[in-house]
Amino acid sequence: MIFCFSGTGNSRYIAQRIAEALQKTVIDLNARIKDNDTTTVDTGSDVIMVTPTYAWRIPKIVSEWMAKTKWTGAKRIWFVMDCGSEIGNAAKYNRSLAEQKQLHYMGTAQIIMPENYIAMFNAPQVDEAQQITAKAEPDIQAAIKCIQKKQEFPVPRNNLYDRLMSGPVNPIFYKMIVKADDFKASEACTGCGLCVRKCPMNNIQLREKKPVWGKNCTHCMACICYCPTEAIEYGKKSVGRPRYQFEKLTGVK
């Protein structure tokens, strides 16, 4: 079984590619987390967890969901993580999650995909995003082959920088950076409510037909990137930056 959490589509695309190759089912973790659904899942023996990289680990909301949810039949787990540049030492923490679930840890694969974190970085234009996605193809295929053969992924890089970012920097980043305080909607907002529906944390409400953000944000960028009128800004940091949706990459389905 394949579990997938995705903010703006990168991880969803990778999960779908793996699902097609393995003829497996993809479970949408966005929906399960949004619904607070922690009912038991009959996974079968092989579990593939596909997620983006948040602060050099898998998203905290995903690891928390894993801890709360019972899996039956699971024996092995592979982690596939996409990122704009690097996953740090995420593998160490993924191994620990596997041990907590009493599963054989089959490794962590890094897939570099287009950047979407416009609260801090520039998302690429369509041409560049397509090039990055095409360059990721061999890594996606390599991950699929390992899973098909029930082989462990190659051990990822693990230097001092990686250990620092996934270790002490991760909780600091969440505490200091991962907040919804700077999200605001301009007069261009139509009150369509798509941001409310896209938020996996139920952190957005419409008040007088305008979105209002709470304190429970994971910085998935779904609200700002999927807004049909680009009415949402993250302070001044997102002004003028292209919004990123994987689905809008021309020629990529």
From TrEMBL:
Q: Which SUPFAM superfamilies match?
A: 4Fe-4S ferredoxins, Flavoproteins
Q: Which UniProt keywords apply?
A: Iron, Iron-sulfur, Metal-binding
Pfam families, per this entry?
Fer4_9, Flavodoxin_5
Q: Would the keyword Nucleus be found if you checked this record's keyword annotation?
A: no
List, for all copies, the residue spans of the domain called 4Fe-4S ferredoxin-type.
Answer: 179-209, 210-237
Under InterPro entries, the record lists: 4Fe4S_Fe-S-bd, 4Fe4S_Fe_S_CS, EFR1-like, Flavodoxin_dom, Flavoprotein-like_sf
The answer to whether UniProt assigns keyword Ligase to this entry is: no
Question: Under which name does UniProt file this protein?
Answer: EFR1 family ferrodoxin
The species this protein belongs to is: Coprococcus intestinihominis
